[in-house]
């Protein structure tokens, strides 16, 4: 009998410790694109889980949704600013279910969160595979004339085509790998040289020289990095092709418009956000090719996103022994 009582006490102690390593309440203030099994897994990390199915209209609604929660999840469609943090003193953890590249580009006021001892985690590199497939697919269609446009009089292969990649982070490296496998002649520019990525088929050039050299340029830059102005488009010249795979525009809108006016340049992006034109005029430009659909949103991307979001939560709970 005594043995059974001791066994029960041990189980109670284990369960108590398990419960201790939990949030009191997790609130997803908007759709966060987790797969169903990941949403269910959230209940292992909190005594209460609330998932909202629509985007809040304003900060007041965000504050109401968070309430007394100590953990908050959000995607890229809402922002958590200082006034929200001020109004929700119980927050200990904010999980960004979207890309976090830098504090400056984040949709959470990370600086103020840090001052309040709030941990902010984001994810990266969950949708890059789809972006690579989009770029290669659209480029091949245009070179071969598989759609309603064709770059030159005769179809052209990727073989020996001079392509420049501006920004050689994870997605830039993956794009380079895919294009290199198809025989493209690749060049890259990055703020920092990456000798480990440089091969006979991937060569570094300063930006001006790269743009003078290539026929196709692909920008893979962090959010809010605007690198292409009138001067850069002049360096690139005409009868050229440009892809922007960044989350936001990598170009000045008026400079891009001017470049497209020449009539033989083509610009490609998957979403209107990557085009960056709020007026909608550029979206209607015949030389802008934008399907307005994120190429990174695939079933596999949602799997990777969910896995990384849960891993961040587990890391926080373990490190803080909640």
Furnish the topology, listing elements before pairings.
Layout: H1 2-20, E1 23-28, H2 36-41, E2 46-51, H3 59-66, E3 71-74, H4 82-87, E4 93-99, H5 110-115, E5 119-123, H6 128-144, E6 162-166, H7 170-181, E7 185-189, E8 202-204, H8 207-213, E9 216-219, H9 230-236, E10 241-244, H10 253-260, E11 266-269, H11 272-275, E12 288-290, H12 299-320
Parallel strand pairs: 1-2, 1-3, 3-4, 4-5, 6-7, 6-9, 7-8, 9-10, 10-11, 11-12
Helix pairs in contact: 6-7, 8-9
How does this structure look, described?
- The protein has 322 residues and is an alpha/beta fold.
- It has two domains: 2-124 and 300-320, NAD(P)-binding Rossmann-like Domain (Rossmann fold, 3-Layer(aba) Sandwich), CATH 3.40.50; 128-290, Rossmann fold, CATH 3.40.50.720.
- It is built from twelve helices and twelve strands.
- The strands form two sheets. Strands 8-7-6-9-10-11-12 form a seven-stranded parallel sheet, with helices on both faces. Strands 2-1-3-4-5 form a five-stranded parallel sheet.
- α8 (207-213) packs across α9.
- The protein is elongated, with a radius of gyration of 24 Å.
- 35% of the residues are buried.
Number of helical segments? 12
Q: Compute the gyration radius: what is it?
A: 24 Å
Report how far the terminal alpha carbons are from each other: 34 Å
Which range does the strand content fall in? 15-25%
Could you name the CATH class of the largest domain? Alpha Beta
Structural class: alpha/beta
Total number of strands = 12
What helical percentage do the residues reach?
25-40%
CATH superfamily heading of the largest domain: NAD(P)-binding Rossmann-like Domain
What kind of sheet is the major sheet?
7 strands, parallel
Number of spatially distinct domains:
2
């Amino acid at each position: 009998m005594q043995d059974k009582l001791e066994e029960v006490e041990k189980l109670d102690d284990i369960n108590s410790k398990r419960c201790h390593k939990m949030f009191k309440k997790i609130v997803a203030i908007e759709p966060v694109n987790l797969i169903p099994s990941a949403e269910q897994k959230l209940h292992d990390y909190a005594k209460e889980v609330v998932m909202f199915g629509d985007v809040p209209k304003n900060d007041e609604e965000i504050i109401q949704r968070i309430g007394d929660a100590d953990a908050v999840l959000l995607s890229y469609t809402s922002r958590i600013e200082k006034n929200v943090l001020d109004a929700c003193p119980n927050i200990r953890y904010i999980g960004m279910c979207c890309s976090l590249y830098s504090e400056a580009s984040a949709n959470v006021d990370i600086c103020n969160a840090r001052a309040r001892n709030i941990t902010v985690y984001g994810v990266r590199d969950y949708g890059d595979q789809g972006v690579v497939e989009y770029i290669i697919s659209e480029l091949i269609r245009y070179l071969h004339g598989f759609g309603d446009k064709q770059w030159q009089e005769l179809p052209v292969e990727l073989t020996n085509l001079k392509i420049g990649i501006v920004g050689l982070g994870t997605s830039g490296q993956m794009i380079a790998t895919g294009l290199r496998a198809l025989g493209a002649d690749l060049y890259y520019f990055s703020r920092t040289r990456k000798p480990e990525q440089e091969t006979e088929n991937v060569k570094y050039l300063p930006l001006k020289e790269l743009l003078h050299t290539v026929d196709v340029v692909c920008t893979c830059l962090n959010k809010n990095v605007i690198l292409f102005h009138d001067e850069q488009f002049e360096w690139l010249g005409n009868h050229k092709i440009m892809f922007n795979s960044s989350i936001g525009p990598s170009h000045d809108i008026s400079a891009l418009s001017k470049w497209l006016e020449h009539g033989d340049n083509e610009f490609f992006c998957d979403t209107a956000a990557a085009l960056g034109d709020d007026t909608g005029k550029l979206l209607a430009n015949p030389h802008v090719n934008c399907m307005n659909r994120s190429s990174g949103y695939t079933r596999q991307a949602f799997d990777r996103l969910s896995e990384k979001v849960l891993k961040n939560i587990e890391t926080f709970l373990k490190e803080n022994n909640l």
